[in-house]
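Both lines are given unchanged directly below:

***
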Amino acid sequence: MILKEKIFENQIVVFTGKFASMSRKEAEQLVLTAGGKIADQVTAEITMLVVGDEGFLNQIDKSKKLKKAEELADKTNSIKIISESVFLEMFELESRYQLENKYYPLKEILKIYQKIRPEHVRLLQKWNLLQPVTRTNSDQYFEFKDLLIFRKIHQFLEEDKTIRGIARGLYLEQFPSNQLKIEFEEERPRGQILEFIPSTSNQSEPTLTAMDWYDIGNQYDTDAATYPEAIDAYQKALELEPTFTPAAINLGNLYFIKREFDEAEKYYLQAHQQTANNQKILFNLGNLYDEMGEYSKSIKFFKKALEIDPFYADGHFNIALVYEKLGLVVKAKSHWQMYLKIDPTGEAAKVAREHLK
């Protein structure tokens, strides 16, 4: 990462809570590199408090630093309180929520495939059978193609196969030879090695995978003229992999654009069932129910999105609009004010100030 300018010049920054993406030391180094200064305590001199996504945001009790910063912000309006996600965006780095929208966190994968334990994953990584696309301070993230491997391992474990036997079989499948290229020593499997039989399907007519159909859908959904082709491709992906959440989200988006709200709801809810704490899906459902005039449902999903990230600016903006439609001006006001604390500049901030008047 190369900083084009000292974006934290004249900023005095305090951190609170655990960071999901990196260590506290790494976050502090980013600020120093960008021309800012670091402080340990919240005082009237600091200009910014950064709250870690793994810290106090998801707890009832706030940290002393956060409480004090909120008090000072109300009095002087000189302290900006931002989440770790917003902090990372300032450096053009991906937050945990952005990563979760693109990839699959190991914590969630292990919830789905409960036969697989963390030590199993470590063994498979040692044998180079599974590797995350990226790691953060709190998790590892995998691509969709890796889910197929996790599912296969889970199925074999349900059949009471040993993890070492499974790993050896997978290795032989990926690197076929008369003898293994590495010595497994103490990890040598006990009992029979799994046999993997190659597919007998017609090689000249390869079967498209769910990921293939998803990629085809992505090519078509950029143009309204080819939305039908995109919808068809995403539906084929879901036929092959009913838990392929990205395809369900994109189908919901396309039907939302086409204002076919019943279909949009169907696919958004399907995605929500698979990943209940996906902020993007919750936000989309909030917008959908707002458009459908089901305001109580809209508020419910916006609230859930804000529970995941209380500093989610768009969430505060949209829920404020819904509260105004219901005549709940006091509730709307608190969200307009929170929006302006998070993002005090730009066109949307002007709109928020107009509503506050």
About this structure: Residues 56-61, 177-197, 199-205 have pLDDT under 50 and may be disordered. The domain at 12-96 is CATH 3.40.50.10190 (Rossmann fold). Strands lie at 12-16, 37-38, 48-51, 80-83, 104-105, 134-135, 140-142.
